[in-house]
Every structure is written in C-alpha cells, then in structure tokens.
Specification:
23% strand, 8 strands, 2,3-Dihydroxybiphenyl 1,2-Dioxygenase, domain 1, four-stranded mixed beta sheet, single chain, 15% helix, 3 helices, 200 residues, alpha/beta
Length: 200
C-alpha cells in the first residue's frame, strides 16, 4: 500500500495575489517558497510545514467566496468546506488567534473537539480556515475511534484499508513511465529568480 507524506499542496484561487501574499506570508508567517507565472498564468506556493503547502492561482475576475460558516450544511453541488492547518500546541494556537485579532481579522474562540483544539477564521479570498493542535495524550492515529451514532456500513468495516474492493492496476513498465512537462517544468532551470536578482 502507498505511504503518504502529507498534503503536498492545496490548490486555491484568488483574484488578488498581493492581498493573498500579505495574509498568508506576512500575517500568518508562511514563507512564499515558489512563484510560477507568465502571461495569463500565475501560481504561488506557501510553506505550511516541511511536507505541506498551500498554493493559489490568480485568475482575473475571481471574487472572494460568500462567507459560509465552517461545517455549515449547503445544498447542491459542493466539494470544499475549509482548510485545517496544524500547529504544534495550544500556545501556538493562541499566538495565531492573537495575531489575527490584532490585525482586525475575525477569529473564533478556541474550540475543544476532543482530539484537537481549533480556532476558525477566513482569508481575504473568503476561504474558511481552521488552525488545529492535537490534544496531548490523545492519538487517533494509534488508537482510531468511531463515535458516530449511526456509522455507515462501509465505515463499520474498520479503520484499515480493505483489500479486494478495487481491482489491482497493471504495473506500468519502467520504459513506459513518462513525466510530462507542466507549467513549472523549467522552474529549477530558469535563469531568472527575481529574489536573487534583487539581492545583487
């Protein structure tokens, strides 16, 4: 079974990259680690942790989302509710809360969810954000729990992957494995790095 390393990146959209950079880099303190772009295309990546990033495409005409409370039910087609970003402990959670409140950005009081403590806010694009830290001594990875009062039949099969539910995919021969160039394929080979040029 494949081992995962975390969320490589969450891809969001914005109509105002500068406001987005000000919030994610300057207010939240996440480093802007990659900026891709050319005429008609821009995508910037912010570092959440050693393995996780959040990225934004800037598209003309994108407007901030209508505010929707985190976890509030909606009708019709819908896929995204909110992003939860981990912090190491309650002290860090309070630091984030104080920083947001000090900047005049609405932020909730801390909420106890049993295995995590969280605060909630919104970014300039209307993206619903949660910041969460684990409760000391509660480890759902080593001791999974199902407390839903009426769990689905498939969930009742347990926390571990169930073999044989899906057909096994054929293994692609090494000689057929191709990685095709994408928008940022010249990223490491580009002669231009505006930040390096600014230093000189």
């Amino acid at each position: 079974m494949t081992r995962y390393t975390g969320v490589n990146h969450l891809a969001m959209t914005t109509g105002d990259m500068d406001a987005t950079v000000r919030f994610w880099r300057d207010l939240l303190g996440m480093r802007l680690v990659a900026g891709l772009g050319h005429t008609g295309y821009r995508q910037y990546f912010f570092e959440i942790s050693d393995t996780d990033m959040i990225a934004f495409f800037e598209w003309p005409g994108v407007e901030p989302l209508d505010e929707k409370e985190h976890g509030a039910p909606v009708r019709g087609k819908h896929a995204f509710d909110h992003v939860s970003i981990g912090v190491p402990d309650d002290d860090a959670l309070w630091e984030i809360r104080d920083r947001l409140e000090g900047a005049g950005v609405w932020v909730s009081e801390p909420v106890d969810h049993g295995f995590i403590h969280s605060v909630y806010t919104f970014d300039p694009n209307g993206i619903a954000l949660e910041f969460s830290c684990y409760v000391p001594g509660v480890d759902v990875r080593s001791q999974p729990r199902m407390t839903d009062s009426a769990p689905t039949p498939v969930a009742m099969e347990g926390p571990e992957p169930v073999a044989g539910v899906w057909p096994e995919g054929a293994q692609t021969p090494e000689e057929d494995r191709m990685v095709y160039p994408g928008e940022g394929h010249d990223f490491l080979h580009s002669k231009r790095n505006w930040w390096e040029e600014k230093k000189n």
